[in-house]
């Protein structure tokens, strides 16, 4: 019963948040709020199933939000068993105690014959013989669950890389590599901040060879380099897998940006800072992309950059900050040119041609080679061309939303010391550039290919050096 293609769905959900309280609410009040969110998710599941979707992904924190302390989230948690128990909660709801949310999600999957992916909290008792057991006698995990089209629990994943503000959850002792097989390919699953790390994100792709990754997230966009849609689509491309990314929707926290991404193309995405409503997306994907003739060839990320001499320039470099990292920048002073900027081991080369050099916009080429230390520690090598916020060079690296300068030609490359490089090209209005207008060459250049003038906001090669974390 293997399928060559399948229809994927993701739902960006505007979460109904609980009121902040000093003390935990009752189990009944917690369930009432969770059911309000599941009522909304149910409509999306039914609509997706009607349109032929085989699987739907809903966001991280999508059932109860994120405004919790460790104590306050407790009434929202359920005991989620290991899928090896072979359990359909919809048929046998009492088997593992009080599990109304798992029962409802299981019935949603079963009644609509669709795989349902959701994120909720798992609680696991522990005792004093375990030296890591928290004082309150249980672990609390940020958890993804997958129910198959019969309503069976087929996957449970405990988020390994918690984001710094997630004080309500515990770190699992070890990273879990969760995969499962379907008639439409092999799937892996992880959550939000996990995408920055080697474990589990790289491992499920490289070692377990999944075809598609399920990715619930609650991602707040931080331009210029960490906006959800550009980063996630670049990750799918570089890692050579389908990525089904479902983000929460909350414009006050800059949370938006969901999509369905294939290795060779962005299939569909949604970015909306104007409204407060959720959005369902569907797209057809290849079940086993590695076997396809369109599967992207491997890239040697330093081949071109190491083969050329650095471009010489009379002008002085300057430094600037992007998300707490100090970049070395050089200004693009003419409408056409070649520049090199270096930091430590990394040299970034840019050749470009603008339609015209505007006096009201300034662009800079930047390099960063170092350890990022805020909200997590991870080693980065980044080459980026970006529009500065104003014509004052001190604003280079600050967020900016629109651009009028058009680039007709560009080629960006760097002397990377890693194979994990994520190429991004963001246009005015935080829109993605269509694949027809650019390519990633096998020798590691992000370059133009249509000659069409593009209003570039940010162009980046975002490298992760895991062994230096």
From TrEMBL:
- What is the annotated signal peptide range for this record? none
Record-annotated CN hydrolase domain positions: 11-287
Mind listing the GO molecular function terms for this protein?
A: pantetheine hydrolase activity
Active-site residues, as the UniProt record annotates them: 60, 159, 192
Is Glycoprotein one of the keywords UniProt gives this record? Answer: yes
Matches recorded under InterPro entries:
Biotinidase-like_euk (IPR012101), Biotinidase/VNN (IPR040154), C-N_Hydrolase (IPR003010), C-N_Hydrolase_sf (IPR036526), Vanin_C (IPR043957)
Q: List this protein's GO terms for biological process.
A: pantothenate metabolic process
Which Gene3D superfamilies has this protein been placed in?
Answer: Carbon-nitrogen hydrolase
Keyword entries, A-Z:
Glycoprotein, Hydrolase, Signal
Annotated family: Belongs to the carbon-nitrogen hydrolase superfamily. BTD/VNN family.
Q: What is this protein called?
A: CN hydrolase domain-containing protein
């Amino acid at each position: 019963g293997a399928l060559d293609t399948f229809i994927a769905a993701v739902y960006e959900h505007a979460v109904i948040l609980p009121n902040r309280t000093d003390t935990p609410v009752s189990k009944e009040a917690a369930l009432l709020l969770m059911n309000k969110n599941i009522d909304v998710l149910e409509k999306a599941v039914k609509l997706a199933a009607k349109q032929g979707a085989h699987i739907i992904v809903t966001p991280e924190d999508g059932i109860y939000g994120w405004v919790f302390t460790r104590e306050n989230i407790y009434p929202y948690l359920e005991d989620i068993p290991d899928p090896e128990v072979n359990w359909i909660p919809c048929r046998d709801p009492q088997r593992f105690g009080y599990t109304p949310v798992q029962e409802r999600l299981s019935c949603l999957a079963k009644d609509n014959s669709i795989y349902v992916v959701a994120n909720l909290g798992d609680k696991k008792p522990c005792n004093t013989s375990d030296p890591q057991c928290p004082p309150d006698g249980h672990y609390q995990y940020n958890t993804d669950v997958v129910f198959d089209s019969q309503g069976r629990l087929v996957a449970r994943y405990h988020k390994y890389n918690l984001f710094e503000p997630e004080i309500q959850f515990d770190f699992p002792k070890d990273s879990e590599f969760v995969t499962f097989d379907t008639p439409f390919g092999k799937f892996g699953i992880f959550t939000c901040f996990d995408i920055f790390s080697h474990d589990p994100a790289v491992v499920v792709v490289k070692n377990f060879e999944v075809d598609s990754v399920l990715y619930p997230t609650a991602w707040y966009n931080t331009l210029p380099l960490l906006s959800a849609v550009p980063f996630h689509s670049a990750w799918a491309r570089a890692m050579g897998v389908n990525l089904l990314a479902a983000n929460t929707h909350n414009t006050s926290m800059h949370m938006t940006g969901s999509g369905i991404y294939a290795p060779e193309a962005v299939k569909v995405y949604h970015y909306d800072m104007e409204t407060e409503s959720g959005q369902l997306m569907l797209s057809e994907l290849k079940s086993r992309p590695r076997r396809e003739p369109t599967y992207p060839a491997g890239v040697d990320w330093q081949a071109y950059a190491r083969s050329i001499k650095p471009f010489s320039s009379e002008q002085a470099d300057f430094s600037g900050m992007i998300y707490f990292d100090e970049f070395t920048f050089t200004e693009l002073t003419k409408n056409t040119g070649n520049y090199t900027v270096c930091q430590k081991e990394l040299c970034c080369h840019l050749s470009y041609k603008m339609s015209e050099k505007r006096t009201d916009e300034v662009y800079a080429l930047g390099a960063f080679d170092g350890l990022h230390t805020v909200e997590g520690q991870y080693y980065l090598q980044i080459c980026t061309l970006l529009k500065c916020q104003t014509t004052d060079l001190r604003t280079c690296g600050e967020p900016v939303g629109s651009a009028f300068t058009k680039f007709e030609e560009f080629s960006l490359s760097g002397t990377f010391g890693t194979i994990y490089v994520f190429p991004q090209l963001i246009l005015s209005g935080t829109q993605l550039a269509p694949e027809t207008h650019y390519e990633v060459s096998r020798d590691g250049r992000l370059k133009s290919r249509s000659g069409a003038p593009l209003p570039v906001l940010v162009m980046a090669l975002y490298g992760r050096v895991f062994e230096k974390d």
